[in-house]
Amino acid sequence: MIELGSVYTNIYDITITVLETVRGKEAMDRLKAASPDNKLPAESSEYVLARIKFEFKGRAVSDKLSFDLGNAPLQWVALTGKDLTEYDRVSPTLPKPALVGIVKPGTSVEGWVAFAVDRKDAKPVMVFDPDTGGATGRGRTLFFKLY
Asked: What gap in Å lies between CA 23 and CA 143, rounded to an integer?
């Protein structure tokens, strides 16, 4: 659940589903297909792509605010599976559709996000932080497996 609004907050329910993850050579192949300008990650790293479905529902008929998804750099973050250290952010051109845009109540958006993780990290995780999209997170930041 997230809250939107500066004076009177409206509460919205979100459902986030990781539909697919792709890692290593296949992820790099998809990034190269999206743009030949996408560069290889650091030598000890590899890309992980995640295709995500983001559903956004207001709790009341009057809940009409929208949510800016994916444009803030902290919304989607990858962490090491071992000690939850944050990986450096990467900004390759993503396969279409990228997971960005304005989400209105009662709608959903589906798209790709990308991370560079250590090749030896068998269990990296992804974090969604709603606070960076103009919302006030209620409860916890959400964690997802990238494996």
From this structure: 18
Provide the residue-wise pLDDT of the chain in tens; the chain has 147 residues. Answer: 666 666 556 778 889 999 999 999 999 999 999 999 999 999 999 999 999 999 998 887 777 888 888 766 568 889 999 999 999 999 999 999 999 988 999 999 999 999 999 999 999 999 987 766 555 655 567 889 999
pTM, full prediction: 0.86
**Cα–Cα distance measured from residue 147 to residue 139, given in angstroms and rounded to the nearest whole number:** 25
Euclidean distance between CA atoms 55 and 33, whole angstroms: 28
CA 9 to each of CA 37, 68, 99, 139: distance values in angstroms, whole numbers, following the listed order: 42, 16, 25, 15
C-beta of residue 66 within 8 angstroms of C-beta of residue 54: no
3-state secondary structure of 145: strand
Q: 10: closest CA among 109, 135, 141?
A: 135
Strand partners, 15: 55
Q: What angle do CA 34, 48, 113 make, to 5 degrees?
A: 60
